[in-house]
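User:
Note these tokens:
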Amino acid sequence: MMNNKFNTWFSTFLDEKNLPYVAWEIVDRAGNTHFIDCEAVIETIKNAPTEELKKIKNIIVQIDFRNGDVNHFFRHLAHGIVEQYQEEVA
């Protein structure tokens, strides 16, 4: 049930922050270029396992408390998503 609770919190957070749309160009370890946007990262977050959601929420709360840019964290996650994809297709 954490996913529903998290997704409610996360949707509220995103609505309140009104984050700008961002897309990143990510180069993987093999030198291939991938394009991923914040919407893809947000959807991946929403579908993450419960234990990961707890960690993600904790990091987002810390970033927000320090008035940081959550999109920097999302970019970090985008790198991980690309690397995970590369491992799955290899």
Q: What stands out?
A: The chain has a mean pLDDT of 93.
